[in-house]
């Protein structure tokens, strides 16, 4: 079952060689500063994200990585700086507009809807694409019904892709941590986003599960061309799958570049990695 | 092993999306509906119909309304009775002022008026949460009842401020006997319950639950908090409004605003908590529990030949104790208990998966 | 005699979901024991069974018993267990959001009848381990970052000065350097203060590096146990838990789509 | 407008507010320390007052002998509540616990009437409920001596409880429990004992409120309704703040009286029922956690 | 068909109004027991069943529906609750069960042409309000002396409190006194602002149209604000021991309306002797015998038993009468002083004579005053207010009701 599902989603593994090349800059963060009361979470940070790339953000605990993601999708409003998204300067925007413009994300502390099943959680991801009025939905009739079924098919594709068929009707609250992370990814994918923000998607997983997760991320990036911004503490993963890495420390940017550049950056080694490059 | 899904394969998402995907459930439901429509009016006594079943159905409807707001959208409300009052008094006035208005349409208009009031009082929920909101909904409760006692127009200048529901006549048929009233209420409740079930299993319902479970995340995903919450208030109040109108028209007949007091709000709240927060079925189970339990306790207490005051107090104590007991046994309510029962049945004869 | 022993425990959630199917394990005094296993294997459940926190989650221990220091403890309250020297760091942080970091740490010392000076010393020790916490000591825990909360949860458990600690995924969400530090602290406490550890961990490599002994849990059953060295040497463990197969470590980029999924059948 | 009258209304309102605060404290105590919104507080007030009066009647003892007996009863009640209701419901959602307290309210009301009868009783404290002559003569303002005493008692209670919460280890533990039962258990906070103590203290607070309100209005079932007066106080002051209860009480008391006297006549009167709620609600729009309540943490 | 005369009693003995409920229903049952001890009504035993309503309309309706079919069908019902009474109002004519509303409920129900099955016996709120003004006029030395006086109507802000307003307003116009209306939000556990307003207005009299705990609070707050209690005149719901006892000395001098002359009567002695001495009394506390609520219960039962006698006289002595027949009995009551004397209740309640037009049958009340220990009547004679005025109002509103309900007013045979 698992295999057949994977089969229909993926062509044989030849595509590594044909990995998409990173395109033009899609998201440009300029001089972002954010503070909470006295705590400076981010100070004057600039970096960009190119289309189709996997961009990692790393840094010690409390460096401001999650806050950065929150700024990108409009949960926090930076006190300073601007965000250029798809070539347009983005004014103060709330998370709803961010979602509408194609930014989806997962959360560090899993933010699934605990009382709903896996399938329903994934369906919520498609809400922006649903058009029928609530009266139609109440009648569950005609277009509303067709729409629901069409979206259900999409959701099922994602379920197959993430290999979580067996738990589609389980309330997410009952799932073990690792699977919840996977469902959260599914919910974000359901929105068919242009940019996917992932906050520690592999925390609390063992190697095998991390491998699965990496595979999903790479596939998404690959097949749908989704741009991915990733926060992760597992250096193995970050160095292996990301195209470029930003390093934050105490709200400041201390490094930016390809994994290999970053790995050998002395500041980064001091602040975060601890060990030098080979 | 009567109850099992094994062998019932769904070949389309459409089939899987049915309200009751399991055949046995569907059969049981149809049988129950048939029973309720045909057998009950024939066999049940006037007492059962007019003192048990009608209020049970009306309270179930109100409980569905509250469940939409509290159970699905997560906004704890203590003002249910106020919305019921708006529904009742609005229906009364519509019929009074617009002669010839069909009664059912008046109920709908009553519900819509309640929905408007609901939206107005739902606005604070955008900022206020949890018990703060719950306590604030009491403002609705007191304010609405106050308005109804203070504005004589609403009670048609009746000296004592009571209204007397007009007779229910639909297409020339008078719904005046318990049987007919019962059938009317049954139909209204069944249709509205079906609509509610549809809502909660489609996108609106998911938006409510998302807001309930984690509103920040819901916003990030793209739900609009304001629209979602206000819609929940509106739909919920609509249901309560219709229930309130039925309460006046099909049950009490003559009502004073006091009939929609805080006590009633609380009773409906009990229903959804005992029955199951976030479950349409639970609304029915809870209503049955709260309607029947006091009656049963009363009958039992009196058959024990205790002095009446002792019996009445014991009744109250047992009622309270049973609420606690059920919460301890299953904090998610009777609906959850029912579900566990079904799961057990499915696994039978094995104790667990 | 072992310090902590779990004998043939069976756990059911919600009356119908059987999660642990007869788990037995031992933690000898002064040793570090690692509990490994995939997601949903039942590691957290095992730990919660030991610390009797299961009751609050509608889980029931239907079989088996837990002994700590030679005494049956499965009927005790968590508070009595902490008093006897057994603390738990729960999965998912569980800091008291409205309390400041320092207040969080101080609640950890609730069961101790410590003087002000002693408390201060204990606090300093935690701050010494986690300097980041010292910086954030007055912030409400609810507003600190994920990693800071994790440190706070670990620090809080240390405040009780336990003789045995159950650690549930201490490395989750923690920067690699600090992960090493945390395990360093574990080793430190273990060797200097003879504290025993039972740690559930996904980061198998590091867990086996520091542990003396390991159990592997699959589907609610112990499928393999042995010294840490033996486990690290096992081919299956290598492949599935350490991510190295015959040819050495594979890049995460080059994962095959269809892997041989070996599952232990018990 | 007659200024003297204005002040009379104001002062009367402030003092009534203190009486509300007295009940609100009981709520705050439980909420702050366990995250439970205790709906049974009103029933406990009634139960305490009725027990006190019932004991004097049944055993023919003086009030001073009955109070210690009632204290013991309230402590037993607290222990029973923990044992029977709270312990099995550890770690359940707030709404479940809230519901359980409603069940408790029914039980306690039934029990109170079963034990002592449904009759209406009088309770006389040795403080006369007549206008203070001193204030009457000096400032020509009518303020009851009783109310002044009640205010003093209330102030004392609040100070003591506020100190308990902010300065002691138990206070800290209580706040921890309110945040996360499971984690509180894990760090070794003896939830059972703490809850039993807490509910006993809440029982004592209820007794104080019951005695004062009972002396004011007579000991009768309606004492359970004073809880409704305490709710707006609670949301205005913040569920988690002792000083909030007092300040909220003063604000609510004063503004509701002023509104009733000076606005009421224009709209048909009787606005006291909803005015405090609407006021509190408007206030919450500005500060959703009340005046002094702990900020609700919403973060992802 | 059972031989018993069966009465449905949807009562309330718990909750906020338990004190009143237990006294009232206690009185009824005591008197029933007394009658049964002496062989019943011409040999017909009375049976009854109680059902706890908690004063809640919805539970009251359930109780009514449950009780009405038992024992071959209830022949009379009395809920002592306006809400419950309204809830079953429409059902009575269909079920052919008469309902009494002794001293409460809608006043215009006294019109038997529109409300054939409803009997607000002895006094309705309107006649009571009229009598209050009459009393105040007399107290001031004549109705003309009321001119320019200030009377505060302090009322429970509900249907109950608003009921007397039309009468009071009409009388204010007629006699030229100023009526100041001050509502109290139920349940009325705080009245500081109202009493400050009253103190400010310096009225000559305060009518306390209160209920339940509101009364004690009103009296206490009056004391706290230094308002003389003897200027307060309560409606009968504010004139029981339950309203004054909890206030301690504060109620000394307070006056209230009553339909029973406080005191002791042979019938009460008999109840003491035959029932309580034998341990068969209904009240938990024998000291409450003869209390206001208890006496009212006994009075209600006396009138019902008289109605049974009247009906039996017409439809067959010694036989149980049906609800319809008992309705006739209630409509043709004639309990004069001689009859009351025979019962041992002379002066305990006013004579009652009903007719199709007048289901109230009396409208006479007394004023009583609390001396700190007990109630004492302070008007030797029964007071009757301006009945012509209330009659006119009654015709108007009941006919409006009939029009709304499409009822053709007519007397039943
Ligand atoms: N809403 C907030 N209010 C106050 N302080 C905040 C808030 N959000 C974040 N902070 C602070 O900002 C800093 C950065 O937090 P952030 O969550 O971005 O860290 P992070 O890099 O994601 O760390 P980790 O790896 O531990 O998750 C932290 O010190 C945190 O305490
Ligand atoms: N409260 C609960 N109700 C129902 N099922 C639960 C509950 N908690 C856990 N489970 C189930 O029990 C199984 C074991 O869960 P547990 O949390 O012990 O796994 P774990 O090994 O700690 O996994 P992870 O590595 O993801 O933390 C899982 O399948 C999970 O779905
Ligand atoms: Mg983070
Ligand atoms: Mg775990």
Question: Could you characterize the architecture of this molecule?
Answer:
- The complex is a heteropentamer of chains A (278), B (353), C (266), D (300) and E (413).
- Chain A has 278 residues and is α/β, with parallel strands linked by helices.
- Chain A folds into two domains: 1-102 and 193-278, P-loop containing nucleotide triphosphate hydrolases (Rossmann fold, 3-Layer(aba) Sandwich), CATH 3.40.50; 112-190, no CATH class.
- Chain A is 38% helix and 23% strand.
- Chain A has helices at 2-9, 65-72, 95-100, 118-124, 134-139, 143-162, 177-190, 207-224, 235-241, 259-263, 266-273, and strands at residues 25-36, 39-50, 54-58, 80-85, 88-90, 103-105, 195-199, 227-231, 244-249, 252-257.
- In chain A, a hairpin with a 2-residue loop joins strand 1 (25-36) and strand 2.
- In chain A, helix 1 packs across helix 6 (143-162), helix 4 packs parallel to helix 7 (177-190) and helix 6 (143-162) crosses helix 7 (177-190).
- Mean pLDDT of chain A is 84; it is low at 1-18.
- A two-stranded antiparallel ribbon of chain B has the order 1-4.
- Chain B is built from 14 helices and four strands.
- In chain B, helix 2 runs antiparallel to helix 7.
- With 353 residues, chain B is an all-alpha fold.
- By secondary structure, chain C is of the alpha/beta class.
- Chain C has a domain at 4-93 and 163-233: 3-Layer(aba) Sandwich (Rossmann fold), CATH 3.40.50.
- Helices cover 35% and strands 26% of the residues of chain C.
- Chain C has ten helices and twelve strands.
- Chain C has helices spanning 43-50, 78-83, 101-108, 116-129, 131-135, 146-158, 176-193, 204-210, 228-233, 235-242, and strands spanning 4-13, 17-27, 32-37, 59-68, 71-72, 86-89, 164-168, 196-200, 213-218, 221-227, 244-245, 248-249.
- In chain C, strand 4 (59-68) and strand 5 form a beta hairpin.
- Chain D has 300 residues and is mainly α.
- Chain D has one domain: Orthogonal Bundle (ABC transporter involved in vitamin B12 uptake, BtuC), CATH 1.10.3470.
- Chain D contains twelve helices and no strands.
- Chain D has helices at residues 3-34, 41-59, 63-86, 94-116, 133-139, 145-167, 169-179, 181-186, 191-217, 226-237, 242-267, 275-286.
- Chain D starts with a helix and ends in a 14-residue tail after the last helix.
- The relative contact order of chain D is 0.19.
- The chains are: A alpha/beta (278), B mainly alpha (353), C alpha/beta (266), D mainly alpha (300), E alpha/beta (413).
- Chains in contact: A-B, A-C, A-D, B-C, B-D, B-E, C-D, D-E.
- One magnesium ion (MG) binds at residues 65-66, 108, 199 of chain A.
């Amino acid at each position: 079952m698992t295999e057949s599902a994977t089969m229909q989603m993926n062509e044989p593994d030849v595509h590594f060689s044909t990995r998409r090349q990173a395109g033009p800059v899609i998201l440009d963060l300029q001089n972002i500063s954010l503070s909470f009361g006295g705590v400076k979470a981010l100070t004057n940070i600039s970096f960009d994200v190119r289309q189709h790339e996997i961009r990692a953000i790393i840094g010690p605990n409390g460096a401001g990585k999650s806050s950065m993601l929150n700024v990108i999708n409009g949960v926090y409003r930076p006190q300073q700086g601007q965000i250029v998204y798809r070539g347009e300067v983005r004014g103060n925007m709330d998370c709803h507009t961010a979602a509408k413009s194609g930014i989806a994300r997962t959360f560090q502390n899993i933010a699934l809807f605990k009382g709903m099943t896996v399938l329903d959680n994934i369906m919520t991801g498609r809400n922006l694409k649903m058009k029928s009025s609530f009266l139609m939905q109440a009648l569950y009739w005609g277009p509303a019904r067709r729409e629901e079924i069409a979206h259900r098919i999409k959701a099922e594709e994602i379920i197959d892709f993430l290999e979580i068929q067996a738990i589609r009707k389980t309330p997410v609250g009952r799932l073990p941590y690792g699977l919840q992370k996977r469902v959260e990814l599914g919910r974000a994918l359901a929105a068919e986003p242009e940019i996917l923000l992932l906050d520690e998607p592999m925390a609390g997983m063992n190697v095998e599960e991390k491998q699965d997760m990496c595979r999903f991320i790479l596939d998404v990036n690959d097949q749908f061309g989704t741009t991915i911004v990733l926060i992760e503490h597992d250096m193995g993963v970050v160095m292996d799958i990301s195209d470029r890495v930003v390093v934050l420390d105490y709200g400041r940017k201390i490094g930016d570049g390809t994994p290999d550049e970053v790995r050998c950056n002395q500041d980064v080694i001091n602040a975060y990695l601890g060990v030098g490059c080979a | 092993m009567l109850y099992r899904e094994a062998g019932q394969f769904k070949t389309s998402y459409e089939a899987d999306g049915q309200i009751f995907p399991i055949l046995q459930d569907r059969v049981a439901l149809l049988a129950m509906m048939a029973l309720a429509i045909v057998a009950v009016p024939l066999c049940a006594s006037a007492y059962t119909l007019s003192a048990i079943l009608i209020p049970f159905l009306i309270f179930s409807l109100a409980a569905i309304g509250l469940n939409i707001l509290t159970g699905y959208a997560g906004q704890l409300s203590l003002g249910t009775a106020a919305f019921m009052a708006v529904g009742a008094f609005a229906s009364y006035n519509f019929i009074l002022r617009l002669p010839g208005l069909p009664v059912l349409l008046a109920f709908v208009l009553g519900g819509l008026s309640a929905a408007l009031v609901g939206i107005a009082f739902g606005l604070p929920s955008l900022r206020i949460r949890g018990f703060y909101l719950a306590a604030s909904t009491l403002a609705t409760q007191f304010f609405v009842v106050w308005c109804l006692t203070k504005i004589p127009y609403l009670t048609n200048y009746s000296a004592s401020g009571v209204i007397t529901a007009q007779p229910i006549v639909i297409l020339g048929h008078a719904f005046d006997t318990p049987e007919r009233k019962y059938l009317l209420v049954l139909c209204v409740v069944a249709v509205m319950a079906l609509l509610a079930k549809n809502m909660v299993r489609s996108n609106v319902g998911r938006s409510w639950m998302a807001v309930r479970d984690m509103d920040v995340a819901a916003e990030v995903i793209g739900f609009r908090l304001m629209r979602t919450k206000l819609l929940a208030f509106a739909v919920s109040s609509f249901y309560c409004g219709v229930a309130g109108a039925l309460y006046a028209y099909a049950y009490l007949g003559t009502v004073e605003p006091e009939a929609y007091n805080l006590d009633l709000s609380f009773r409906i709240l009990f229903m959804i908590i005992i029955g199951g927060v976030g479950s349409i079925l639970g609304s029915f189970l809870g209503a049955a529990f709260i309607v029947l339990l006091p009656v049963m306790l009363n009958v039992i207490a009196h058959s024990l030949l205790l002095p009446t005051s002792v019996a009445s107090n014991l009744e109250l104590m047992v009622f309270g104790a049973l609420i606690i007991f059920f919460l301890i046994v299953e904090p998610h309510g009777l609906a959850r208990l029912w579900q566990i029962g079904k799961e057990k049945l499915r696994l039978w004869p094995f104790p667990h998966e | 005699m072992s310090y902590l022993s779990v004998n043939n425990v069976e756990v059911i959630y919600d009356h119908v979901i059987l999660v642990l199917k007869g788990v037995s394990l031992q933690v000898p005094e002064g040793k570090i024991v690692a509990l490994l296993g995939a997601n949903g294997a039942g590691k957290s459940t095992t730990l919660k069974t030991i610390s009797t926190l299961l009751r609050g989650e509608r889980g029931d221990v239907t079989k088996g018993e837990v002994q700590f220091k030679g005494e049956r403890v499965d009927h005790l309250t968590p508070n009595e267990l902490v008093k006897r020297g057994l603390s738990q760091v729960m999965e998912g942080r569980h800091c008291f959001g409205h309390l400041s970091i320092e207040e969080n740490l101080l609640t950890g010392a609730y069961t101790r009848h410590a003087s002000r000076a002693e408390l201060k010393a204990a606090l300093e020790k935690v701050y010494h381990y986690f300097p980041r916490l010292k910086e954030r000591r007055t912030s409400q825990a609810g507003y600190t970052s994920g990693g800071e909360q994790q440190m706070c949860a670990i620090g809080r458990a240390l405040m009780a000065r336990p003789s045995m600690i159950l650690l549930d995924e201490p490395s989750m969400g923690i920067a690699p350097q600090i992960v090493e530090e945390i395990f360093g602290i574990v080793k430190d406490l273990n060797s200097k203060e003879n504290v025993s550890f039972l740690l559930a961990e996904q980061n198998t490599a590091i867990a086996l590096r520091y542990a003396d002994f390991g159990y592997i849990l699959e589907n609610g059953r112990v499928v393999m146990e042995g010294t840490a060295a033996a486990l690290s040497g096992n081919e299956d463990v290598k492949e599935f838990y350490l991510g190295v197969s015959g040819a050495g470590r594979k890049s995460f980029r080059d994962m095959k789509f269809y892997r041989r999924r070996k599952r232990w059948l018990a | 407008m007659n200024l003297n009258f204005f002040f009379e209304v104001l002062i009367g309102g402030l003092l009534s507010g203190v009486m509300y605060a007295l009940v609100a404290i009981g709520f705050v105590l439980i909420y702050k320390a366990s995250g439970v919104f205790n709906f049974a507080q009103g029933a406990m007030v009634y139960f305490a007052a009725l027990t006190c009066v019932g004991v004097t009647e049944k055993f023919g003892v003086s009030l001073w002998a009955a109070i210690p007996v009632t204290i013991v009863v309230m402590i037993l009640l607290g222990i029973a509540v923990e044992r029977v209701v709270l312990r099995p419901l550890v770690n359940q959602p707030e709404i479940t616990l809230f519901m359980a307290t409603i069940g408790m309210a029914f039980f306690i009301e039934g029990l109170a009437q079963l034990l002592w009868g449904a009759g209406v009783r009088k309770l006389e404290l040795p403080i006369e409920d007549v206008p203070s002559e001193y204030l009457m003569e000096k400032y020509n303002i009518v303020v009851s001596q009783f109310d002044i005493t009640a205010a003093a008692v209330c102030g004392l209670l609040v100070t003591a409880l506020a100190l308990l919460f902010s300065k002691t280890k138990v206070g800290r533990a209580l706040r921890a429990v309110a945040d996360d039962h499971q984690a509180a258990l894990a760090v070794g906070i003896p939830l059972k004992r703490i809850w039993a103590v807490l509910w006993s203290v809440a029982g004592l607070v209820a007794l104080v409120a019951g005695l004062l309100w009972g002396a004011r209005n007579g000991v009768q079932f309606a004492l359970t309704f004073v809880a409704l007066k305490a709710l707006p106080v609670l949301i205005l002051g913040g569920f988690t703040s002792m000083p909030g209860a007092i300040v909220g009480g003063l604000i609510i008391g004063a503004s509701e009286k002023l509104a009733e006297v000076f606005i009421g006549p224009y709209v048909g009167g009787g606005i006291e029922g909803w005015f405090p709620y609407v006021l509190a609600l408007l206030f919450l729009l500005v500060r959703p956690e009340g005046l002094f309540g702990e900020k609700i943490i919403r973060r992802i | 068909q059972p031989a018993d005369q069966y009465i449905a009693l949807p009562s309330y003995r718990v909750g906020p109004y338990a004190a009143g409920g237990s006294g009232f229903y206690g009185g009824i049952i005591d008197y029933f027991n007394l009658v049964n001890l002496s062989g019943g009504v011409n040999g017909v035993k009375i049976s009854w069943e109680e059902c706890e309503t908690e004063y809640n309309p919805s539970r009251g309706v359930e109780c009514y529906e449950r009780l009405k079919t038992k024992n071959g069908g209830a022949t009379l019902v009395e809920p002592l609750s306006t809400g419950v009474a309204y809830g079953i109002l429409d059902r009575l004519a269909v079920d052919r069960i008469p309902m009494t509303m002794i001293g409460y409920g809608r006043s215009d129900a006294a019109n038997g042409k529109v409300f054939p099955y409803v009997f607000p016996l002895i006094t309705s709120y309107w006649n009571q309000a009229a009598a209050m003004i009459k009393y105040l006029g007399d107290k001031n030395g004549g109705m003309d002396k009321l001119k320019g006086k200030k009377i505060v109507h302090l009322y429970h802000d509900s249907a109950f409190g608003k009921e007397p307003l039309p009468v009071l307003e009409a009388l204010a116009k007629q006699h030229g006194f100023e009526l100041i209306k001050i509502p109290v939000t139920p349940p009325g556990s705080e009245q500081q602002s109202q009493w400050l307003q009253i103190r400010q207005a310096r009225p000559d009299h305060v009518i306390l149209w209160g209920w339940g705990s509101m009364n004690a609070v009103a009296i206490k707050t009056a004391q706290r604000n230094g308002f003389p209690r003897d200027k307060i005149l309560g409606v009968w719901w504010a004139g029981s021991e339950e309203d004054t006892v909890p206030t301690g000395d504060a109620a000394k001098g307070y006056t209230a309306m009553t339909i029973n002359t406080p005191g002791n009567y042979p019938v009460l002695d008999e109840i003491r002797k035959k029932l309580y001495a034998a341990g068969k009394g209904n009240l938990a506390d024998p000291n409450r015998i003869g209390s206001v609520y208890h006496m009212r219960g006994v009075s209600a039962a006396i009138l019902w038993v008289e109605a049974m006698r009247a009906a039996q006289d017409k439809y067959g002595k010694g036989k149980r009468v049906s609800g319809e027949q008992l309705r006739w009995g209630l409509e043709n009551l004639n309990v004069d002083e001689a009859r009351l004397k025979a019962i041992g209740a002379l002066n305990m309640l006013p004579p009652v004579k009903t007719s199709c037009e007048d289901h109230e049958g009396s409208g006479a009340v007394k004023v009583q005053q609390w001396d700190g220990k007990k109630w004492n009547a302070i008007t030797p004679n029964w007071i009757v207010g301006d009945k012509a005025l209330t009659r006119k109002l009654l015709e108007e509103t009941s006919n409006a009701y009939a029009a709304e309900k499409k009822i053709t007013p007519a007397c039943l045979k």
